Automatic annotation (TrEMBL):
<dbReference type="GO" id="GO:0046872">
    <property type="term" value="F:metal ion binding"/>
</dbReference>
<feature type="region of interest" description="Disordered">
    <location>
        <begin position="1"/>
        <end position="32"/>
    </location>
</feature>
<dbReference type="Pfam" id="PF02358">
    <property type="entry name" value="Trehalose_PPase"/>
</dbReference>
<keyword id="KW-0460">Magnesium</keyword>
<keyword id="KW-0479">Metal-binding</keyword>
<comment type="pathway">
    <text>Glycan biosynthesis; trehalose biosynthesis.</text>
</comment>
<feature type="compositionally biased region" description="Polar residues">
    <location>
        <begin position="1"/>
        <end position="21"/>
    </location>
</feature>
<dbReference type="GO" id="GO:0005992">
    <property type="term" value="P:trehalose biosynthetic process"/>
</dbReference>
<dbReference type="InterPro" id="IPR023214">
    <property type="entry name" value="HAD_sf"/>
</dbReference>
<comment type="similarity">
    <text>Belongs to the trehalose phosphatase family.</text>
</comment>
<dbReference type="InterPro" id="IPR044651">
    <property type="entry name" value="OTSB-like"/>
</dbReference>
<comment type="function">
    <text>Removes the phosphate from trehalose 6-phosphate to produce free trehalose.</text>
</comment>
<dbReference type="InterPro" id="IPR006379">
    <property type="entry name" value="HAD-SF_hydro_IIB"/>
</dbReference>
<dbReference type="GO" id="GO:0004805">
    <property type="term" value="F:trehalose-phosphatase activity"/>
</dbReference>
<protein>
    <recommendedName>
        <fullName>Trehalose 6-phosphate phosphatase</fullName>
        <ecNumber>3.1.3.12</ecNumber>
    </recommendedName>
</protein>
<dbReference type="InterPro" id="IPR003337">
    <property type="entry name" value="Trehalose_PPase"/>
</dbReference>
<dbReference type="InterPro" id="IPR036412">
    <property type="entry name" value="HAD-like_sf"/>
</dbReference>
Length: 286
């Protein structure tokens, strides 16, 4: 056990509502401690969600404001961690890099549907493409309901109802039928319903990273804000690590909490500032 793990509450903390790896570990009326200071010298692996964790939620997916230093900070932290850092996002990798710039780290995109094992590696598809007919059906629904925003991705499709909350009931019904008929996975994130081919989520993505030589043996930490991050919180708990919920308390499998995006940036910046200089290229773990 690393010093980092020893200082954290564990899955056997008495406040736990459920001992299983499948449900939330902590109830909404509990609260969770802050994570200890990030120590890039410890044998940890860091997994970072994007929307709501590294950038504030905005009214439109293209309207998020990315801090100018964010990509550089994440790349530098990844180097300090010997490559044991990945962004794990519901966005496609292309959409992520369009916002963040070409960040030189491992990435899982489209909720685990696409996977880049390390900086510079090819993007591997891990899911089958969604049938075009499903996207077309959702586009028809969106057009008939005030023009909901449809965001097709390589392995899933997101329909945003943030500007049309009145359409949620009909959207859920439409998506449920499409999911049932097509054997698809349905995810309900922040003001968004997503359909994807089954078999990949943020938990499977984290588990896949942890099976790579560069990540093996490290204690994983996953920072995320949305209910779609709960798969990853459960996965890291199962792998001997901890989830860090970002935002207000809710029922969660995370064991730690940071209050907001600003606190995440401070925690990462402080960790980076505390780290010794990065090893030269080529001396990181394979
Ligand atoms: O896993 P994440 O990195 O958190 O991505 C989840 C989804 O994020 C985006 O939608 C969310 O953020 C938008 C911008 O703040 C917001 O307008 C929307 O309501 C949120 O649901 C993205 O557009 C989706 O594709 C991601 O799956």
């Amino acid at each position: 056990m690393t010093n980092f793990q020893a200082s954290l509450p564990t899955a056997s903390t008495p406040r736990m509502a459920s001992p299983s790896h499948t449900g939330p570990a902590f109830a909404a009326e509990d609260d969770l401690p802050l994570p200890p200071a990030l120590d890039p010298g410890a044998n940890i692996a860091l997994f970072l969600d994007f929307d709501g964790t590294l950038v504030e939620i905005a009214d439109h997916p293209d309207a998020v404001v990315v801090a100018p230093r964010l990509a550089g900070m994440i790349t530098a932290l990844s180097r300090r961690l010997g490559g044991r850092l990945a962004i794990v996002t519901g966005r496609s990798i292309a959409a992520l890099e369009a916002l963040l710039g070409p960040v030189e780290v491992a990435v899982a995109g489209s909720h685990g549907g696409e996977f880049r094992s390390r900086a510079g590696a090819e993007v591997e598809p891990l899911a089958d493409p969604l049938p075009a007919a499903v996207v077309a059906a959702l586009e028809r629904f969106a057009a008939a309901n005030g023009g909901l925003l449809v965001e097709p991705k390589p392995f899933s499709v997101a329909v945003h109802y943030r500007r049309h909350p009145e359409a949620l009931e009909g959207l859920l019904a439409c998506a449920q039928i499409l999911a049932q008929d097509g054997g698809l996975a349905m995810k309900h994130g922040k003001q968004v319903i997503e359909l994807a081919m089954p078999g990949s989520d943020k938990g499977t993505a984290v588990t896949r990273f942890m099976g790579l030589p560069a990540f093996a043996g490290a204690a994983p930490l996953f920072l995320g804000d949305d209910v779609t991050d709960e798969d990853a919180f459960r996965a890291v708990r199962h792998l001997g690590g901890q989830g860090v919920l970002v935002g207000p308390m809710r029922a969660t499998a995370a064991a730690l909490r940071l209050p907001d995006v600003a606190a995440v940036h401070t925690w990462l910046e402080d960790g980076l500032a505390s780290a010794p200089a990065a090893q030269p290229e080529g001396e990181t773990r394979p």
